[in-house]
Design goal:
Length: 470
């Protein structure tokens, strides 16, 4: 008889973290208030860029392919600034993880912040840990259904506010808010809010720690960023073991109260050692310190600790100074690289020209021989005016004195480019019949544009195809 295959699936056991007070819990509340405040308020900040530009301080203008951040405007061809910011964010994550473990996960990750907010709402409505466990195990009743409906409604309101705030970063916030109120907002805005509302409620309200354990790749990567000098949340087992009652003089400091387990949003026991699920939120430190204080024992049984200090402390030696753990070769290297990227981006930002041009030769045909024997090349020019007002640009060509320049649609070589815009035009470089400009089929030439108001110039090198003696 073939044995039944082992069932490796286990249904999720909901985690109901207990309310805790302390330094790290207060720090998490403060960070939550700051991060959510930034998220919800930033789209409403104004920044005067002039009459021709949007006045929203932070705006991702997809329609015009622009990103505005205070006085900085990023054009599509300058996406390397965004790439640089992402690189700096990654290096910053490496730096903080190397120094202090998963502080990003424990304090500022959006999943952590919104999960904390949802748990707070759940606690207000259903009660603290024991009350929520009893409600979870109770059969469905009018009271249970009412509490769940109230909680889910509150979660949905938070989700709508989350999605609503996000779309305000992509359009003028007051205008879009008025469109929502009058039910005239674009379909894509409604769809985005619906998707973000759903994902916020599902990920932050129902999945919670499963997102961190199963969906997020960072727990698997963090091992490469940390070493035995990294400060992370740990249990001083040489102090706590063997566990026993408070009155047992032969036992360690740990009284096996499970307070650290009850407050953990990941549902783990930090006394079992370092675990992938731990997000170093440090709530177990607050819970343990509270118990130790009540028992009149030294705090810090669970604390931020470097594993390299463990054998020294167990032998009675004091731990290394915190700054020695933070300032070590790995973190210094990350800091140098991070600073280097930052300086390079600032330098690139300040040397950006206010006018730019691209030149694309028309290759079909490469050149045209006119009826009088003149040779003509066609080029497509894109003139970029980054100023907040229209500017007059003069267009010129250099490289050979016999070349003439014609702009399609106008008899002169001056073009007005609208404010903060790109203007496309077609130009013709012509060499008269019989004029020899080169002994080769390709003659180097250069197109110039000049801002007639400021005198700023920009140029692009290209080639003129066809010999002047043909």
């Amino acid at each position: 008889m073939t044995p039944e295959p082992e069932n490796l699936y286990a249904a999720r056991e909901p985690i109901f973290p207990k309310r805790v007070k302390g330094t790290f819990r207060n720090l998490k509340w403060a960070i939550m208030a700051v991060t959510l405040g930034i998220y919800y308020l930033v789209p409403w900040l104004r920044w005067d860029r002039g009459p021709n530009l949007p006045d929203q301080a932070v705006l991702v203008d997809l329609a015009h392919r622009r990103f505005y951040f205070l006085w900085i405007e990023i054009w599509p061809h300058e996406f390397y600034f965004v790439a640089g910011l992402l690189i700096m964010a990654g290096l910053g994550l490496f730096l903080f993880t190397s120094a202090l473990g998963r502080v990003w996960c424990g304090y500022t990750c959006p999943q952590t912040v919104w999960t904390d907010l949802f748990i707070l709402v759940e606690r207000w409505i259903e009660g603290d840990r024991n009350a929520r466990i009893r409600l979870h195990r109770a059969k469905w009743s009018l009271r249970k259904g009412g509490l769940r409906l109230l909680k889910w409604t509150a979660w949905a309101v938070i989700g709508v506010a989350t999605g609503g705030a996000w779309v305000f970063y992509f359009a003028d916030a007051p205008t879009l808010a008025n469109q929502f109120l009058t039910l005239s907002a674009p379909t894509v805005a409604w769809a985005t809010v619906a998707v973000l509302t759903t994902t916020t409620v599902v990920l932050g309200g129902f999945m919670r720690e499963q997102v961190c354990i199963y969906m997020c790749p960072w727990p698997r990567i963090q091992g490469a960023m940390m070493d035995d000098s990294t400060l992370t949340v740990a249990y001083r087992d040489w102090r706590g073991e063997p566990r026993g009652k408070a009155r047992d003089e032969t036992a360690g400091d740990c009284v096996d109260c499970n307070a650290c387990v009850a407050v953990c949003p990941m549902g783990i026991d930090i006394r079992d050692g370092q675990q992938m699920e731990c997000i170093t939120c440090a709530l177990c430190i607050d819970a343990c310190d509270d118990i130790m204080g009540k028992l009149g024992r030294e705090r810090g049984l669970i604390d931020y600790l470097a594993l390299s200090d463990a054998p020294k402390e167990e032998a009675g030696a004091p731990p290394r100074a915190i700054w020695k753990h933070i300032l070590r070769p790995r973190t210094i290297l990350y800091s140098i690289i991070w600073t280097g990227f930052g300086i390079a981006m600032i330098y690139a930002l300040f040397i950006r020209p206010e006018i730019e041009m691209t030149v694309a030769p028309i290759r079909n045909p490469t050149f045209v021989v006119l009826s009088d024997g003149a040779i003509r090349n066609t080029y497509e020019l894109r003139l970029r005016n980054k100023h907040g007002e229209p500017r007059q640009f003069g267009v010129h060509v250099s490289g050979n004195p016999v070349l003439g320049l014609l702009i399609e649609g106008t008899a002169n070589t001056t073009i007005e480019v609208p404010a903060d815009a790109t203007h496309k035009l077609r130009v013709y470089a012509v060499t008269p019949a019989g004029a020899e400009i080169s002994t080769t089929d390709e003659t180097p030439i250069r197109f110039w544009i000049e801002d007639l108001e400021s005198g700023e110039r920009a140029s692009v090198n290209t080639v003129f195809n066809g010999r002047g003696d043909q």
